[in-house]
Amino acid sequence: MDYTHAFAISAAGMTVERTRVDVAAINLANANTVQDARDGVYRPLRAVARTSGTASFSGLVDAGVSDSAGLFLPELPNVTVEAADVVPRMVYEPGHPFANAKGFVAYPGVDSAVEMVTMMSATRAYEANVSAMNAARTIALKALDIGGAT
User: Least packed by Cβ within 10 Å: which of 38, 90, 131, 140?
Assistant: First the structure.
């Protein structure tokens, strides 16, 4: 039995979740940055996992193909980082050097609570993928032990 597919699925999941953690950390780091009107305001980022097929779970299962031996090969997602269309947070600070004519400063529309929840859920999902990979490894080693005891 070929366990490389199980390892590839877990590795793809870990890549997606690691990217989600990285993006949440970048957003939190830039939550209070201010840029002048020429450069624009920092736009929060989002990690988006996509496949070329349907986005639903059944679509992902159906999108898999079989190889020459008839084994199922799932379509793994690719993760991209995209800027979110979030309205900047306007704060009244008339003495700030980047304040507009009305005295408002544009801060990024980063919601710290959402970013922390994203970071925590991505960390848990990453740990679940590690556990799945370790379970597949253990199963493969046990299968080798059973097959070698003849």
Answer: 38
Helix (H, G, I), strand (E, B) or coil at 87: coil
Q: What share of the chain is helix, strand, coil (3-state, %, to 5)?
A: 45, 15, 35
Question: Helix or strand or coil: residue 38?
Answer: coil
* Separation CA 84–CA 66 (nearest Å): 36
Count of alpha carbons within 13 Å of 114, Cβ hemisphere only?
A: 9
Helical segments of the chain, H only:
4-29, 57-63, 112-148
pTM for the model: 0.77
**Residue 36, by phi and psi: left (phi above 0), alpha (psi -120 to 50) or beta?**
beta
